[in-house]
Amino acid sequence: MAGMSVQPYREICFDADGDPGGGPYDTLAGLDVTDLVVFAHGWNNSPALARRLHSAFFAPFPKLAGGRPGTQVGYAGVLWPSMRFPDEPFPGSELADDVPAQGTGLDGATRELLTGLFPGHTATVARLAWLLGEQPDSRAAFAEFGMLARQLAAVPPGGLEAGFAEDLPRDEQSPPAVLYEDTLTLCRRLAAALGVHAPDGAAGPAWRGARELLRQTTYYAMKRRAGTVGELGLGPLLGRLSRSAPRVRVHLVGHGHGARLVAFALRGLPEGACNVKSVTLLQAAFSHYAFATGLPHAPYRRGVLGGFEQLVDGPVVACHSRHDTALGVFYPLASSLAGDTHAAAGTDPRWWAMGHDGIQGVADTPRLTLDEALRGGVPAAGCVSVDASAVVRHGRPPTGAHGDICHEELARVVLTAGRIGGAAPGT
Question: What is the DSSP string of 73-125?
Fold first, then answer.
């Protein structure tokens, strides 16, 4: 494909229900490669932007993996319907700060993206924009805003996404604050996280938090969709590839919600599929307990992916960064239980994201620095957490370093985890 940093490169396109709708299987099955690196984007507004990210992330691979006898690496990008707000830095920007300062209102570009992501909600988006622009100083206005924003996150009639929202047993994470907390209360919390405080209980400053609530409800819908596409789309497709091209070693890589997509693909693998040789999760936007075989507060409960790492003939590596404020600050505020005032501070680890502090609740999971992983390698199987804060570190609020992932060091993690071409520590 013209303009792509690597070849051979193929694309796998899915709709919101995980339907490939074309022939992505045939394009993959025809590749003459030994190793296939499959990357799933997180936030994304168009195929062109997704390709730009894929090209930037893959760029170091030929130099690092090339020239090894008997090794031929192919690349694939997963395209699925998601959204990046225009005030968020594009993943792969050098310093992740080349974006305009965010305002309170809803600009035309954001309105257009929302109506595209949520068909049939043009009037809803228009009313949300009006409320953000006018900022009525009343609890009723906030209640209306919350109702409308949450309508966007509702599963469309006939949609398949309803069963893919949970990372933990339903009674462990319902009702989530992003959908059920009092709107004005949650908007004040989100505004405070942005450094905006309401004097004497005034409602006006909380409109900064209302924009964040809209962002978080959108994220909730994308998180649910990522699970759908992974389990119903990518997993079965990889199963077909396992039967037709059993010698091709597949390495899954995902960023943000794309990390949830590739992780849920493990749930969709048919019995006997053993072609997935590594999984690398970059700033994963789902619960750090998703792979847990026992929750710290409920030892006999497990995460929705508990034990699924055993379907990988290699390691599941979660790269995380303390500089990712999208996951370290806003994710727990949105994911906590409605009405839970203790969790409202964001300090309850039950609601933390994997991209914030790695995989939790899995016994004997190594915790490595990035330097340790590159010098000494990662385990040959099982879960491992790698603190990538040394390179995933640039970006401004509200997302911080969430998109700062296009680094040679992270490409080396993928190669090391997959033993691509016999990649050794320090390669």
Answer: EEEEEEE-S----TTSPPTT-SSS--SPPP-SS--HHHHHHHHHHSTT-HHHH
| CA–CA gap between residue 139 and residue 392 (Å, rounded) | 39
Please state, in angstroms and as integers, the Cα–Cα distance from residue 389 to each residue in 136, 287, 319, following that order. Answer: 41, 19, 9
CA neighbor of 57 nearest in space, from 370, 407, 419, 413? 407
Q: pTM, whole model, 2 decimals?
A: 0.94
- Can you say whether the dihedral through the CA atoms of 43, 114, 343, 340 is positive or negative? negative
Peptide linkage before 398 cis (omega within 30 of 0): yes
- Return the H-helix or E-strand segment holding 177: helix 177-180
CA-closest candidate to residue 347, choices 328, 366, 370: 328
Phi/psi region, residue 65 (left: phi>0; alpha: psi -120 to 50; beta: rest), is alpha
CA 356 – CA 323 distance, rounded (Å)? 8
- Which H or E run contains 37? strand 35-40
* pLDDT tens-digit readout, 62-117: 999 876 788 999 999 999 999 988 888 777 664 433 445 555 678 999 999 999 98
